[in-house]
Design a protein that fits this description.
This protein is mainly beta. The protein is built from one helix and 21 strands. The protein has one helix at residues 7-25; strands at 34-35, 69-73, 76-80, 92-95, 102-108, 118-123, 128-136, 139-147, 153-160, 169-174, 179-182, 194-197, 203-207, 220-224, 229-232, 246-249, 255-259, 272-276, 281-284, 298-301, 309-310. The strands form five sheets. A five-stranded antiparallel beta sheet has the order 1-4-3-2-21, with helices on one face. Strands 5-6-7-8 form a four-stranded antiparallel beta sheet, covered by helices on one side. The protein starts with 6 loop residues before the first helix and ends with a strand. 46% of the residues are buried.
Length: 311
C-alpha cells in the first residue's frame, strides 16, 4: 500500500498521545511504543502497520474513519493498525505495565479527517480529561480536565458526529439505564448533557464508529441481554440523535464484546468487530444497508480473550 504524506508523523503522534495518557494521568512513566510481535489473531502477518490509506486523511473519510484498535491486557495497553486486508498488523506496546487507574477511554476525531486526534479518558476518581496534540513540539500533548462526577456512567462512547456539527460527540449511559449525549466543541470541551432516552440498560453492548448505513451520519448497534442485535440509525439531530431501532438479528449472545475502530478493511465503510467467548475475533464488514448493515462475518483469528477490553 502506497504511503501518503505525513503517514509516519500521524502514526507516531497517535502513539505519543495514547502513551502520554498514562504518563500524565496515572503518574508513572509510560512505556515507549515498540514492536511487540504478531497479533494473537494473525501470527502470519508481518506487514508494517499503516496509519491509514491515502484517502483516510480527508474530510470525505470522516464518516468511515480509520482508527487503531486499542486493547488492554493486564496493566498494558496495545495498539493494532489495520493491515489493509481485513485484519490487523502486528501489535505495538503503547504502555507497558503502567495502564492503571483508567476506567474508560474513548478515541475521537474532532477535526473530521478520518483519523483519531484525541482521547477522552476517565480515571478511577470519576474525572474526565481530554488528551490531544499540543501546540508545539515542546508541548506535544495537552491534558484538559473536563470535569468530575463521570462515575455515574457505566458506558461512555463516541460513534462520531451525532449532533450535526464538526466534532465527535459523546454518549453516556447512567446506572439507571438513561442514555445522555454530550456535544463536543472544537477545543474538546463538552456541552451540558441532553437526555436521549431511558431503557438503554437492556443492552450489554453499544458500539459504532462512523456511518454504517451509507447516509453519512454516525450510527450505533446495541446487543440486548437475549442476544438480539439492534440498529439505531443516526439522525444528525443533537436532541434526538437516533431513529427507532431496527432488528438486525439474534444469536449475538455468542459474543462477549462488540466494538468498532471504524473501517478495518479499508473499503470506505465502517465495520463492526465481535469477540466470541473462546477469544476469536470476527469482522462484520459494513455494507451500507439500512436494515441489514453487515456482510457475513469473517474470522480474524484467536487469542483475543487475553484482553479485558478493546476500544
Amino acid at each position: 500500500m502506497a504511503p501518503f504524506p505525513g503517514r509516519t508523523r500521524r502514526r507516531a503522534l497517535s502513539r505519543l498521545v495514547t502513551a502520554a495518557i498514562a504518563a500524565a494521568l496515572v503518574g508513572t512513566a509510560a512505556g515507549t511504543a515498540a514492536a511487540d510481535g504478531p497479533a494473537p489473531a494473525a501470527a502470519d502477518v508481518s506487514v508494517a502497520p499503516p496509519a491509514a490509506p491515502p484517502a483516510a486523511a480527508s474530510s470525505s473519510r470522516a464518516a468511515s474513519p480509520v482508527f487503531p484498535l486499542m486493547a488492554v491486557g493486564g496493566t498494558s495497553l496495545y495498539q493494532y493498525w489495520p493491515d489493509g486486508q481485513g485484519g490487523f498488523a502486528d501489535r505495538k506496546t503503547v504502555v507497558s505495565e503502567k495502564w492503571r487507574g483508567i476506567t474508560a477511554t474513548v478515541q475521537v476525531d474532532h477535526n473530521q479527517n478520518g483519523l483519531a486526534d484525541g482521547h477522552y479518558v476517565r480515571t478511577a476518581d470519576g474525572t474526565l480529561r481530554f488528551t490531544h496534540p499540543g501546540p508545539t513540539p515542546d508541548v506535544p500533548v495537552v491534558h484538559d480536565r473536563i470535569g468530575g462526577g463521570w462515575n455515574i456512567y457505566n458506558l461512555i462512547a463516541s460513534p462520531g458526529n451525532l449532533g450535526g456539527a464538526s466534532q465527535a460527540d459523546l454518549i453516556a449511559r447512567d446506572t439507571s439505564g438513561v442514555l445522555w449525549i454530550y456535544l463536543a466543541h472544537p477545543d474538546g470541551t463538552l456541552s451540558d448533557r441532553y437526555r436521549v432516552g431511558r431503557g438503554w440498560d437492556v443492552y450489554t453492548d453499544i458500539a459504532g464508529r462512523g456511518d454504517l448505513n451509507g447516509d453519512g451520519k454516525a450510527d450505533v448497534v446495541a446487543k440486548d441481554k437475549s442476544g438480539v442485535l439492534w440498529f439505531y440509525k443516526g439522525t444528525g439531530n443533537a436532541y434526538d440523535p437516533f431513529e427507532s431501532r431496527v432488528k438486525v438479528g439474534g444469536g449475538w449472545d455468542a459474543y462477549n464484546l462488540l466494538t468498532s475502530s471504524g473501517d478495518v478493511n479499508l473499503d470506505g465503510r465502517s465495520d463492526l468487530l465481535a469477540r466470541d467467548k473462546s477469544g476469536v475475533l470476527w469482522l462484520y464488514r459494513g455494507n451500507g444497508n439500512a436494515t441489514d448493515p453487515f456482510d457475513n462475518r469473517t474470522k480474524i483469528g484467536g487469542g483475543w480473550g487475553q484482553y479485558s477490553t478493546m476500544f
